[in-house]
Amino acid sequence: MKNKISGKRKISAALTVIGFISILFCVFFLSDGKFNLSGVNSGFDTEQDFVRVIDVGQGDCSLIYSNGYSALIDTGTPEAANDVCAQLSECNIKEIDVLIITHLHDDHSGGVGKIAEIFDIKNVILPEISIESEGLTSAELIVNRVTESGGGVFTAKPGMNFGLGEFEITVLAAYDNMKDENNRSIISMAKIGDKKFMFTGDAEAKVEKELLNEGLDLSCDVFNAGHHGSSTSNTYEFLKAMKPEYVAISAGRDNSYGHPHKEALAIFERVGADIFRTDYDGDITFYVNNGRISPKTEK
């Protein structure tokens, strides 16, 4: 049974970090919980539902919008933050209802400082913090900002979910026991009607195997490619279980990592997915209307 979460269940915890950095968390700990959002960002087309993979270069940032509500999954790099803010402003978004940081690498969480300066962030979902996480400064900043403004700070737990307009967003997995920061990525699914969007951050083959072993329903219509289209993620078995109609790859043009890798591209093609890439296509928007997904690219 899903429980409504209230502010009375906040639990304070302290994490002392090497270098005498201390982060004070006001965290909701959930195993199977649902929380309700308050407030609506008015002024934009409230009948428009979409998921946009924003071109942030060699990083990751996705915007989910529905009925005046907005969520960001990751923020991209510090250098890309101004572009993300401009995108949000163009959509007349005044506040971000939920921010999900999949994991604490700068290409996924580095833009949080700038974004939090301009937009009120009402709820944030984070992985369990490791003292070895690269993005501890980003975590400290966003936790403090959201807490000071009376918002909710959540540690991701499998089964927690929330409604965002017509979307329901669910945390499928968060492997806190993994040592590698990439494999600690929050795995989430955004569902609208019978259409589903999968986000796996930088989770690699080890996590994909765990997800398959758990017997979860991984089928989706759109997959935000794992780890920018790396060959260390995006295994054939995983893609075969998802059977996505579309794959969106967030990667920088001529990046030094060689993302997306040709092995991953071959697998996407093998499962019959239409492939979009931010390095070639710019922003990739998947509009959802009358139960149909219509992709549109910036370029």
List the SSEs and their pairings:
Elements: E1 3-4, E2 11-17, E3 21-29, E4 33-35, E5 49-53, E6 62-66, E7 69-73, H1 81-90, E8 95-96, E9 98-100, H2 106-109, H3 112-118, E10 120-121, E11 123-126, H4 136-148, E12 152-155, E13 161-164, E14 167-173, E15 187-192, E16 195-199, H5 205-213, E17 222-224, H6 236-242, E18 246-249, H7 262-270, E19 274-277, H8 278-281, E20 284-289, E21 292-297
CATH class: Alpha Beta
- Using only C-alpha atoms, the radius of gyration works out to 18 Å
Instruction: Note the run of SSEs as H and E.
Output: EEEEEEEHEEHHEEHEEEEEHEHEHEHEE
Looking at CATH, which topology would you report?
Metallo-beta-lactamase, Chain A
Looking at the overall shape, the CATH architecture is 4-Layer Sandwich
Sheet with the most strands: spatial strand order = 2-3-12-11-9-7-6-5-20-21
Helix vs. strand class: alpha/beta
Distance between the termini: 45 Å
Low-confidence stretches: 1-33, 37-42
Q: What portion of the residues fall into strands of 2 or more residues?
A: 25-35%
* Fraction of residues in H or I helices: 10-25%
Describe the structure.
The protein is α/β, with parallel strands linked by helices and 299 residues long. It has one domain (45-297): 4-Layer Sandwich (Metallo-beta-lactamase, Chain A). Helices cover 21% and strands 32% of the residues. It has helices at 81-90, 106-109, 112-118, 136-148, 205-213, 236-242, 262-270, 278-281; strands at 3-4, 11-17, 21-29, 33-35, 49-53, 62-66, 69-73, 95-96, 98-100, 120-121, 123-126, 152-155, 161-164, 167-173, 187-192, 195-199, 222-224, 246-249, 274-277, 284-289, 292-297.
